[in-house]
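ok here's the first one, seq then C-alpha cells
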Amino acid sequence: MNINSIDLNRPQRFTQDYEKNKLSQKPAPQFGNTNGEATRNVKVVAATSSLLGTSIVLALLAKKQGFYLNPKTIKNTPIKDWAIFKIAKKNEPDRKLLEIEEGEIISLATGSIAGGLAGGAIFDKKNIKAKGREALTQLAGNVLVPVGFVSGASKLYSKFEDSIVAVLPQLSGEGKVVKFTNKFIKALPAMGITLLALGAGICTGSKVTNFINEKLFGQKQKREIKTSDFAPHVDDLCLGITLMGAKDSPVVSSITRTVPLFLAIPGYQVGKAQEKV
C-alpha cells in the first residue's frame, strides 16, 4: 500500500467516537467559581438556604407569639388567616396579628444570613472567607445599623408627635378628598423622618462595614453602596411607619407581611459571595 494514499486530515473512527462520547457526556454540576461571579448552582443554593433560614426563624417567632404551628391546625385554617398572611381590619381592632418590629427583623435577618452562610459553606467551600466577610457586612451594614437608626428616630418622633401634628395645617370640610389630604399631611413628618433615618442608616452602615473590612480583614478597597443594599430596607420603612402609629392600617399591615421575603435577600447575598480575582 502506498503511504501517500493515506489521508491524514480525515477524521479517524476512534477520534469520531471519542468526540461523540465527549459531547454526549453531561457536565458535572459546578459549585465553585474563580471569576468573581457565582455559578447558577451556587445562586440556587444561596436562595434556597437563605429562604430556609428565614422560614425557620419565622416559624419560631409565630409560635412564640401564640400562633399554632400544628400541621392539622394549619390545614384547617384559611390561608388568609395564617400568621404570615393575616392583616389588620378596621372593624376588628383586637385582631391578633404577627408582630414584626425591631427584634423580629433582626432575628429574621440573622436566620437568613445564617442560612445563606451555611449553604455556601457546604456547596462552595473555596469561597467561604468571602461569604464570612459578606455575612458581617450584611448583618452590620444592612440590618443592625439601619434598623437602629429607624427605630431610634421612630421612638424619638413618638415623644413629640402630638406637638408636631398640632401645628400642621388642615383643610376644612368633611369630603373624602379633604379627609384623605388631612390624613396625608399628618403622615408627612413620620414619612420624612423615616426616609432620612433610613438614608443615614444605610450610609453609616456602609462606613461601618468598610471600617471593619479594613481593620479586621486588611481590605482597603471600599465597599460601595449597591442597589441590592436597598432591597432589604422595605422592612425598615415598614418598621418606621408601624412604630409611628400605623399598626392598625391594612395597607401597612399588608406591607409588613412581605418583610420576611425581603429579609431573605441578605442571606442570598452571603451565600453567593465570591472571592475577587
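and now the second one, same deal
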Amino acid sequence: MEFRGFHWRELAENWGIRQETKEITDGIYNPESVMKKIVVNGKKVIFEIDDEDELIAEKVKRYIWDHYDIESDTLDNQIKLDMKDFLRALCKHEFHNTQMFEALLNIEEDHTFLTWFTHNLENMWT
C-alpha cells in the first residue's frame, strides 16, 4: 500500500484492523471494546475502551507489539517498513512541523523505534 500520510488510521486499514461487532442476542449487536491498563500516580488503573478511534489506536499498538520479538530485539520487517513508509508520507505534508517524525525515521534500534512510534501514534495525522 502506498500511504498518503494523512492519518495513522491508514496503518489500521493496511493491516485490516477495525472495530468488530458481535451479536449478543437475536439481531442485537454490541461494538467491540478492549481493556487498557495505565499507571496514574503510581497506581494501576484498568478501564474499558469502546470509542472507535481510541479502540483502533489501541489495537494498532498491540498489533505492532505483537510483531516484536523480545528475544532477538527485532520488529517484523514488513511491519517496520509499513511504519516507516507511513512516516515518510506524513513528513511530506507542510501542515506539520515534522522534526519529531523525521527523527523517528532515523532510529535504528527496533525497541526504541516502536516504543516512541506507539507512544505518539495518535498525534500522527495532518
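notes on #2: The longest helix spans residues 52-66. The longest strand covers residues 34-40.
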